[in-house]
Design brief:
By secondary structure, the chain is α/β, with parallel strands linked by helices. Strands 2-3-4-8-9-13 form a 6-stranded mixed sheet, sandwiched between helices. Strands 6-7-5-12 form a 4-stranded antiparallel sheet. Strands 1-11-10 form a 3-stranded antiparallel sheet. The longest helix is centred in the first third of the chain and has 26 residues. It is elongated, with a radius of gyration of 27 Å.
Length: about 450
């Protein structure tokens, strides 16, 4: 006999229906509870608080911008694997999570903060999204730099982020630099400090950034006068703890006052094969790059494997500094024969990192403190704008290599003397300074 399946009773159908509804409700409730997690939400003030104009972007426009950002970073950004090793963050693998955060934003200000949070997961101070004040500060800096030419705007407008009127409008700016009097230049907060710690023995210089327009000339004059005053001291401390960078010329001038012969050192940097690096009209084109395939295998084998697999071009940069008096003015001559100590910490970054690594590799200074923050760069850091929101993004594209073959962003620069780097107002309780005073080498 054949077993015939009996038709379901009405009660059975109702029971199955209730089970299905229960499953659906459970899924919906679980999704809503999951979506309520704080990591998927940001709360913003009014758009004007961030220096932007509200444009009421749709969710699809925000997601389109995010996809564009991901493509640009995939093509250019060098530190995804470094970030995964150091911070256990798979940024590209988190795209679904980041999209959820973006979908939950209710206005442009929240979208700005969401992107800021997302980029923050890269743990790189060279990667950020601009608010209005930062945009205007960069604009002012670029204009000042190109003002040495007859028509600064001609050179400024090689940069799409400054040329595009929709970008300027997004940041409430019409391109008139005369409106930027209340906007500071970048890295204008050097807070230069010079003082004698131990009479006739130990002198001290501190600056919080590598200053640019508006401060460099005045600071350099103060430094030169101070160095002349202490040129017979046994020890000079240069404190760059907390210094996140700025302009190389700031620290290079100070070094040139303290050396009596030329010093130089070379570093390798690697880049990906991207539109930004190749397009001939791009202000970020790498003009002197060479194919990684042309690099001597003995040299390449000294670097991490990802250099070989993930990068396409390299440039070998050489920093050469000459005694100031030789090149410029004999009145600049300072006959300092003591020892130079450089105080560093994990916040030392970018140009300050370049100073730290150069000082160590050339023997110019003894480094004291903790390992630095890294990301020594030589090439200009790109600025792009997102197609829908017109928000400006800044990002690293250069993977720098240390003298020992490690990735600078990953390992930074290790000091000669490791000690608690925390600054203290009372120098007798500052462990870095005390390590210098006690050092007898």
């Amino acid at each position: 006999m054949f077993n015939r399946k009996l038709p379901m009773t009405k009660k059975q159908k109702i029971r199955i229906g209730l089970i299905i509804i229960s499953i659906i409700l459970t899924i919906v409730a679980t999704e809503r509870i999951y979506n309520m997690k704080p990591e998927f939400h940001v709360t913003a003030l009014d758009a004007s608080s961030y220096g932007i104009v509200e444009a009421k972007l749709t969710s699809s426009e925000k997601l389109e911008d995010f996809e564009y950002l991901c493509r640009v970073l995939e093509e250019n950004y060098p530190f995804f694997k470094v970030n995964q090793r150091l911070h256990n963050i798979d940024w590209l693998g988190n795209k679904r999570k980041y999209k959820r955060l973006i979908k939950n934003t209710k206005n442009d200000a929240e979208f700005l903060l969401a992107l800021n949070k997302i980029l923050g997961d890269l743990n790189n101070r060279h990667v950020n999204i601009f608010g209005g004040y930062t945009y205007k500060s960069f604009y002012k800096n670029f204009y000042q730099y190109f003002s040495k030419y007859d028509n600064p705007y001609k050179y400024m407008y090689k940069y799409d982020v400054f040329l595009n009127p929709h970008v300027r409008f997004r940041y409430g700016f019409d391109g008139n630099v005369n409106e930027l009097d209340n906007v500071d230049f970048l890295f204008s907060d050097t807070d230069l400090e010079t003082k004698i710690l131990v009479d006739n023995e130990v002198a001290y210089i501190n600056f919080k950034s590598m200053g640019g327009f508006g401060v460099t000339e005045e600071d350099h004059k103060k430094v030169k006068e101070f160095l002349r005053e202490v040129q017979n001291y046994k020890k000079l401390i240069i404190d760059i703890r907390g210094n996140s960078g700025g302009y190389d010329s700031y620290w290079e001038y100070i070094v040139s006052l303290l050396i009596n012969e030329s010093i130089n050192y070379s570093y390798y940097s690697f880049f990906k094969d991207s539109h930004i690096n190749k397009y001939k009209h791009s202000p970020y084109k790498l003009w002197n790059s060479k194919s990684i395939n042309s690099l001597d295998e003995k040299i390449l084998s000294q670097f991490p494997e990802e250099v070989r697999t993930d990068f396409d071009y390299y440039i070998k940069y050489t920093i050469t500094l000459n005694p100031r008096a030789v090149n410029v003015n004999s009145s600049d001559y300072i006959d300092f024969k003591g020892r130079v100590y450089l105080l560093v910490d994990s916040k030392v970054f970018s140009s300050a990192e370049k100073f730290a690594s150069f000082a160590k590799d050339t023997g110019f200074a003894t480094l004291v403190g903790e390992t630095t923050g890294g990301d020594r760069v030589f090439e200009e850091i790109p600025l792009i704008y997102l197609p829908k929101s017109k928000f400006v993004i800044r990002f690293s594209r250069e993977l720098g290599i240390n003298s020992d073959g490690t990735i600078n962003m990953e390992t930074g620069t290790t000091p000669h003397i490791k000690v608690d780097p925390a600054p203290h107002e009372d120098f007798t309780k500052d462990k870095c300074i005390q390590a210098v005073i006690k050092d007898s080498n």
